[in-house]
Specification:
Helix content: 40-55%
CATH class of the largest domain: Mainly Alpha
Structural class: alpha+beta
Number of strands: 8
CATH topology of the largest domain: Phosphatidylinositol 3-kinase Catalytic Subunit, Chain A, Domain 5
Largest sheet: 5 strands, antiparallel
Strand order of the largest sheet: 1-2-3-5-4
Strand content: 5-15%
Length: 279
C-alpha cells in the first residue's frame, strides 16, 4: 500500500489515504493486543456480528491494525453518545435523563439491561419516527444492538461506551454500522500490558441484569448465541487467528487469553443456568 496522506485523529489512531484516495484507519497497539482484536473479529464473524475487518499492519515501524473506513457514500453517521444526548436535550424528559445517568453509559458494559435498551429504543424512535417502515427498521436495529451486547459479554469487552457504536442513516433508511474497537477484551485494557484486572464479574452481572428482565424466548436466544463459541472450540479459533496473523505469541500469553475466556464463559454459563431454573 502506498500511503499518500497521514493524519492523527486520536492518541493511538491515524487516518490514512492511499494513492487511490481510499481511506483507512491505523490503530497503534502491541502485538498481544493485535491478537485479541483479531480474535474478537473472528468470533464476531462466527456469531453473526458485522465487525470492521482488521488486518495486522506496520506503519513506520510501529505495530498495529489497519481497517478500511466503514464510512459509506450517501450516509450520515452519529455515535450512540450523540443519539442519546440529543434525545435528552430535545425531550427535556427528567425521567429519561435520570435513567440515562443511572445507567452509567460511559462506564463499562454500557448496554447492560433492558433499561438501557429501552432508552436507546425511545431515542431511535424519536429520531426516525417519520421514516418509511420505521417500526421494522427499529426492530432490526435493536436486534443488532442486542447481538452486539451479547458479543461484548462473550469476549468481556469493557469498552463499548456510547462513543463506541455508531448509527448510519440517509433520508429513508437507518441501522447499526459495523462494530469496531474490541481490543479492550479478554480481561485487559486497550494499551496496557496483557495481564490486567479481570472484568468478568461485570460481564456476568450485566448478563444477569439483562436476563432477569427478559422473557424465556430471549433466554433461549442467549443460550444459542453462547453455544457458538465455547470452551470446546476457543483454542482452535485462537490458533487459527495467531497463524493467520503471523505473530509469534508467547505461550504464557496464549494461556492467559484462553484462561480469560474460560473463566468469563464459566461465569456467564452459570448466570444462564440459574435463570433457566426460574422458568
Amino acid at each position: 500500500m502506498n500511503i499518500k496522506n497521514k493524519k492523527r485523529i486520536s492518541t493511538f489512531v491515524l487516518k490514512l489515504t492511499d494513492e487511490n484516495n481510499i481511506e483507512y484507519f491505523f490503530k497503534e497497539i502491541p502485538l498481544c493486543i493485535i491478537v485479541k482484536e483479531l480474535l474478537a473479529q473472528n468470533i464476531a464473524k462466527l456469531v453473526g456480528v458485522d465487525n470492521v475487518k482488521y488486518l495486522r499492519f506496520q506503519l513506520d515501524g510501529i505495530d498495529g491494525v489497519i481497517s478500511e473506513s466503514f464510512i459509506e457514500a450517501g450516509y450520515h453517521y452519529m455515535t450512540g453518545t450523540e443519539l442519546l444526548t440529543n434525545y435528552i436535550r430535545d425531550t427535556r424528559n427528567k425521567d429519561i435523563e435520570l435513567l440515562y445517568n443511572e445507567s452509567e453509559y460511559n462506564d463499562k458494559y454500557s448496554i447492560k439491561a433492558n433499561q438501557d435498551l429501552y432508552i436507546i429504543w425511545q431515542a431511535m424512535e424519536a429520531k426516525f419516527k417519520n421514516y418509511p417502515d420505521y417500526e421494522n427498521q427499529i426492530l432490526k436495529f435493536m436486534n443488532d444492538v442486542i447481538n452486539m451486547m451479547l458479543f461484548d459479554l462473550l469476549i468481556a469487552n469493557g469498552d463499548r461506551g456510547p462513543y463506541n457504536w455508531t448509527i448510519k442513516y440517509n433520508d429513508s433508511t437507518f441501522g447499526l454500522s459495523k462494530v469496531y474497537d474490541n481490543e479492550y477484551s479478554f480481561s485487559s485494557s486497550p494499551y496496557s500490558s496483557l495481564n490486567t484486572t479481570q472484568d468478568f464479574p461485570s460481564a456476568s452481572e450485566a448478563l444477569r441484569m439483562f436476563l432477569n428482565e427478559s422473557d424465556d424466548s430471549m433466554l433461549e436466544r442467549v443460550w444459542n448465541f453462547f453455544n457458538i463459541v465455547t470452551p470446546n472450540n476457543i483454542n482452535s479459533i485462537l490458533e487459527t487467528t495467531i497463524q493467520n496473523s503471523g505473530i509469534l505469541l508467547e505461550e504464557s500469553d496464549k494461556d492467559f487469553i484462553i484462561n480469560s475466556f474460560l473463566d468469563n464463559y464459566k461465569n456467564l454459563e452459570e448466570v444462564i443456568r440459574n435463570r433457566m431454573k426460574t422458568r
